[in-house]
Structures are given as structure tokens and as C-alpha cells.
Write a structure and sequence with these properties.
The complex is a heterodimer of chains A (147) and B (141).
Chain A: H1 6-16, H2 21-35, H3 52-57, H4 59-76, H5 82-85, H6 87-95, H7 102-119, H8 125-143
Chain B: H1 4-17, H2 21-35, H3 52-71, H4 76-79, H5 81-91, H6 98-113, H7 119-137
The chains are: A mainly alpha (147), B mainly alpha (141).
């Protein structure tokens, strides 16, 4: 459960409405794969990841980024029950995809950085704090069913 | 460790920060304390609610050290040796906190540079700042 004040919830709702979620996802996932290249280990089937340009332009990266952010957007509507919301995705990432949960934290941080890039001055320290709480909550929810 | 291209990204962004160390440093610390309140335990000399002047004073000192690191990327261990001693013997900041500071640094850069904060720039700064953190904690034991 993520504990956000009324002010934080309002800030998240307002600013999420100012960005294009479709772009955020691909951008964040692309940055994860470039800044932390070892994360590419989970994406052998994605084709050309050989350079920053290749990664950021890769259609599979963009498509998967969109899938991730759609799921994240859904999480924003269920902040009171992230563990329930992400329960089956957690099982999938453990049992089928075998993804180290550390990657959820890294990707969460990339989402925050991309939001900062798009929102500029509007991404104040308090807004950052609110979003970091959310991404941490989502990461924990995704790791919750690991065994 | 940093390629020529990565070094160029670091110095180009530093040229934008130079002269504004106090303001950038203050924002960095404010973000650190707001997002990760537990980090305040290392800054008790700034008081429970540091004001702008205190944040700028300490922030300026931290960014000045980053500036030293930028000038001496080839020679980080020697350049940061006194700071490494300080962190090992006096400050003893748990190494887990450096990634938190780096995340806030990236957010400062992203929010100010926006479209100029390309993935290549981000990657170079992440590598550079991580290298600085490694040097600062290397003498811990």
C-alpha cells in the first residue's frame, strides 16, 4: 500500500495528464537498456539493440514500453491495492520471465527521469517524491509473489 | 573507463552547471531530503529544516567537488583522495545512499536540460557519478 497525501495524489493526477503515456514507456525502457546494458539480457528477441540510436528507435522496445506504461497507468488507479493489482504480473515475471526484481526499481527510476525531462520545472521535489513512492510501490508489488 | 564521447558529454553538461554550483547543489539536496528523508541523518549540522542559505552553502561544496572530478576524470582516485578519507573516517555514509543521490542528480539534469538530456548524456553522467561514488567509498574497509 502506497501512502500518499491528498496533495500528492492530486499532483500525480494532474501531471500524469500532461504527459503522453505512450511515449514515456518506450523512452523509459529504452533508457534502461542503454544506461544499464546488462538489462538487455531479458530481450534477446527484440532485434537490434547494438547502439543507443538502435535501442531508442527499436519498434519492439517502444511496443513493450507502451505495455509497461499501460500497466503502470492502471496501477495509478489502484494505489490502495498495488499488490492485488500486480499479483498475476508478479507471478509471470517470476515463474515465466525470470526477471530480477532489481530491474523493476531501475525501470521505476527511469520513468521518474523521463517524467522530469518532459515536465521540467513542474517536476518539483515534492512531485518527484510522490512519483518515487508510486514507482517503489509498483516495484514492490511486482516482486511480492516471487518465491 | 569513460570513452572520449562520454567524457565530452560530461564536460559539456558541466559547462552549463559551472557558476551555478550553489543553486544546482541546493536543488540536489532538497530533492534528496524530500524524496529520501532518511538521508537527512547525514546532514544534521544543517538542522531539521534546512533553509535555502544552508542548502546553497552545502550544495555549493558538493558540486564544487563534482567539478574537481570533472576536471580530473583520468585521475579520480588522486583528485578525490582527501574526500575519500573524509567519507571513510568521519562521514561514513552508507554506500547504499550514493545511488539515491545519483538518481536525484539525474532528475535535476533531466528537468533543466529536458530534450538536451539525451540517453547518451544520461548514460555518461550515470557512469561518471557512479565512478565518483566508487572512489569515495573505496577506503571504507
Amino acid at each position: 500500500m502506497v501512502h500518499l497525501s491528498g496533495e500528492e495524489k492530486a499532483a500525480i493526477a494532474t501531471l500524469w495528464g500532461k504527459v503522453n503515456p505512450d511515449e514515456i514507456g518506450g523512452e523509459a525502457l529504452g533508457r534502461l537498456l542503454v544506461v544499464y546494458p546488462w538489462t538487455q539480457r531479458f530481450f534477446d528477441s527484440f532485434g537490434d539493440l547494438s547502439s543507443a540510436t538502435a535501442v531508442m528507435g527499436n519498434p519492439k522496445v517502444k511496443a513493450h514500453g507502451k505495455k509497461v506504461i499501460d500497466s503502470f497507468s492502471n496501477g495509478l488507479k489502484h494505489l490502495d491495492d498495488l499488490k492485488g493489482t500486480f499479483s498475476s504480473l508478479s507471478e509471470l515475471h517470476c515463474d515465466k520471465l525470470h526477471v530480477d526484481p532489481e530491474n523493476f526499481r531501475l525501470l521505476g527510476n527511469e520513468i521518474v527521469i523521463v517524467l522530469a525531462l518532459h515536465l521540467g520545472k513542474d517536476f518539483t521535489p515534492k512531485v518527484q517524491a510522490a512519483f518515487q513512492k508510486v514507482v517503489a510501490g509498483v516495484a514492490n508489488a511486482l516482486a511480492h509473489k516471487y518465491h | 573507463m569513460l570513452s572520449a564521447q562520454e567524457r565530452a558529454h560530461v564536460t559539456q553538461v558541466w559547462d552549463l552547471i559551472a557558476g551555478h554550483e550553489a543553486h544546482v547543489g541546493a536543488e540536489l539536496l532538497l530533492r534528496l531530503f524530500t524524496v529520501y528523508p532518511s538521508t537527512k541523518i547525514y546532514f544534521r549540522h544543517l538542522g531539521t529544516c534546512p533553509d535555502e542559505a544552508q542548502l546553497q552553502s552545502h550544495g555549493q561544496r558538493m558540486l564544487a567537488a563534482v567539478g574537481v572530478a570533472v576536471q580530473r576524470m583520468d585521475d579520480l582516485r588522486a583528485a578525490l583522495s582527501p574526500l575519500a578519507d573524509l567519507h571513510a573516517q568521519v562521514l561514513r555514509v552508507d554506500p547504499a545512499n550514493f545511488p539515491l543521490l545519483i538518481q536525484c542528480f539525474q532528475v535535476v539534469l533531466a528537468s533543466h536540460l529536458q530534450d538536451e538530456f539525451t540517453v547518451e548524456v544520461q548514460a555518461a553522467w550515470d557512469k561518471f557519478l557512479t565512478g565518483v561514488a566508487v572512489v569515495l567509498t573505496e577506503k571504507y574497509r
